[in-house]
Amino acid sequence: MKSLKLRIAVVLIALISSIYVVLTKPVTLGLDLQGGTHLVLQVDIEKALQDEVSAALAEIKNKLEEENIPLLSAKRDGKNIELLLLDSENVPQAVEMIKDDYGEMFEISTSENRILLKIKPSYVTKEVDRLAEQALETIRNRVDELGVAEPVIVRNGKDRIIVELPGIKDPERAKKVIGKVAKLEFKEVVDVARTPDELITKLKGTIPSMATVAVKPSPFGPKFFLIKGDKEEKIEVKNLEELVRKFGGEVPEDQQLLIQEIKNKEGKVVGYTFFIVKKEPILTGAYLKDAYPSTDEYGMPAVSFELNSEGARIFKAYTSKHVGTRLAIVLDGKVQSAPTIRSAIGARGQITGQFSYQEARDLSIVLRAGALPAPVKIIEETTVGPSLGKESIEKGVKAGIAGLILVMLFMIVYYKLSGVIADLALLMNVCILWASLALLGATLTLPGIAGFILTIGMAVDANVIIFERIREELRKGRNLFSAVEAGFSRAWGTIIDANVTTLIAAAVLFQFGTGPIKGFAVTLSLGILSSMFTAVFVTKVLLDVIVKYKRNIFSI
Description:
Keywords: Cell membrane, Membrane, Protein transport, Translocation, Transmembrane, Transmembrane helix, Transport
Number of domains: 3
Helix content: 40-55%
GO biological process, one term: protein targeting
Shape: elongated
GO cellular component, one term: plasma membrane
CATH superfamily of the largest domain: Multidrug efflux transporter AcrB transmembrane domain
Radius of gyration: 35 Å
Distance between the termini: 24 Å
Largest sheet: 6 strands, antiparallel
Subcellular location: Cell membrane
Transmembrane segments: 399-417, 424-443, 449-470, 491-513, 519-543
Low-confidence stretches: none
């Protein structure tokens, strides 16, 4: 008696709690139901490795110079480096020095005064995994800053990342924020030119007499033209360095050329300023502690930043010695601003650059999340509209209700009063499953709805096994009470076996699936657990109540 009352109390508490959660807490809908954007990103591992090799080359050259080892030439060929020393006697010393710092990265071979550094396959394998994981973490941080509910961000293969953004209202903005490299650097300004002619002249180049070099903005960057009289001849160049070389100029090895875009009030690029800067940065975004949108002294949108203690120390030491010179703030290879240093700068600073308020907010997000270790490009994009998702929900709900009604009718016709009890347990199962999804913050997807519907069939399947066992016991002549007890105990092993194997399959789907497949696995797993509770425990409680108090109305 006490046991039955306790079990009835458990059923009532579970039912009331589930109804409360269903009424007060909504279930999060997946990308395929509420609409959103599905992106497949590819990390440019090759570019990142080449950048690493370039950085290693610069460091090796500095070390050789410090050790007074004369160098005739040093060049990078893809992911390999070739060094030509002035004196072959210095080769052993140079090799030892390179081994100490870059032994894990390069295989080193020599020939007279020549040293060849070839990147190791083992290093490439390790770096591919590290770069992809770092890109994944950076993208996840940026998406979190965007405030997208229940995003899916997972690796796919060695260099691809799948990003699903359910309910995103501005997919274009999201793509810009996710894909921006956000490599922040502070560099010393050597010189500034307002025109291409001035830049070429400063670097010892010569423009033909009675001619000038014009620059015109385009969506893909500046385009250059040589104008002679009324004729305009397009100059095909990859970058500013190549433009300078076309006219006989030369950029010093420790310097590089950068541009700053000049925009009008509408944000359209109308011109450029050309900067000659030191190649080696004074500071990078790696020392950034925080970044947030603000306004400059003229009330225009800007981004304020705060450096960590090490970054503040380096920045203060440099700016205190270079008062009166210009400092270029460079983001992804473009000069955002180049203020004159008026006093020593410590931990705080500001980036200006004709931003809109939205651009300032987005730049703050990507700077806080950190720079991507390599460029990423979108190789696949799918956008699901809210109307399509709404249609999927409507069809899924109709299918679920239709399946529920058919199953319930079958159970009533075939098992009579016991079928009604199974239907009550089934309705409770649906309520508990929905409440579980809401309570755990699980995302409901279209395959998840399929899992929901499948759970309905699996829930009554357990009842069918139990009821058939009870029928067998009654045919053997057992009384009603012992037949019910034996039916449940004999059916229990079969029910456990069937549900455990399904749970294992769901776990595999969850582990190796992505997006909607995981949604199916979650719904199926929760459905199995709730159906085992309702189909066995709840049904047993209801049958025990009938057997104890209304045995005369029992039918099966």
